[in-house]
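Researcher: Sequence recovery benchmark, item below. Answer with residues only.
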C-alpha cells in the first residue's frame, strides 16, 4: 500500500514522504512561487521504484488533503519525461498551451501543466 506522510505543513508549503511498506520511495512538495498560487514538485528516489504507480497514488491522496487556497496548481515537467506526464494526467492536470504563457515562463526543455481545482 502506498502512503503519503506529512513531513512539513505550513500556510505556504506542504511536504510529504511517499512510503511503500514503510519505506520512503519519494517526496512530494507544494510551494508558493513563480507568480502562481502554488507549484508542485515531486520525485521518486530510485529507478527501481519508478513506473510502478507509487507517485500517482500518493499524489492523488495529497491533492485531496490540500486546502483550496493552494489551487490553482502548476507543475513543470521535462518534455521527454513520459512517466511524469502520465502521472500528472492521471491526477487531473492539463497541459498549458504555450500561447497562454508569458515569454519569461517558456523554456524549451519543459512543459507546463495546470490544475484548476481539487477535482481537476
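Model:
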Amino acid at each position: 500500500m502506498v502512503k503519503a506522510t506529512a513531513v512539513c505543513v505550513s500556510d505556504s508549503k506542504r511536504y510529504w514522504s511517499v512510503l511503500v511498506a514503510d519505506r520512503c520511495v519519494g517526496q512530494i512538495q507544494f510551494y508558493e512561487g513563480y507568480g502562481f498560487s502554488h507549484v508542485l514538485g515531486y520525485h521518486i528516489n530510485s529507478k527501481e521504484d519508478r513506473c510502478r504507480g507509487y507517485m500517482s497514488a500518493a499524489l492523488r491522496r495529497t491533492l485531496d488533503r490540500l486546502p483550496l487556497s493552494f489551487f490553482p496548481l502548476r507543475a513543470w515537467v521535462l518534455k521527454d519525461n513520459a512517466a511524469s506526464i502520465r502521472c500528472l494526467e492521471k491526477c487531473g492536470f492539463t497541459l498549458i498551451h504555450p500561447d497562454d504563457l508569458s515569454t519569461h515562463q517558456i523554456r524549451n526543455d519543459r512543459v507546463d501543466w495546470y490544475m484548476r481545482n481539487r477535482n481537476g
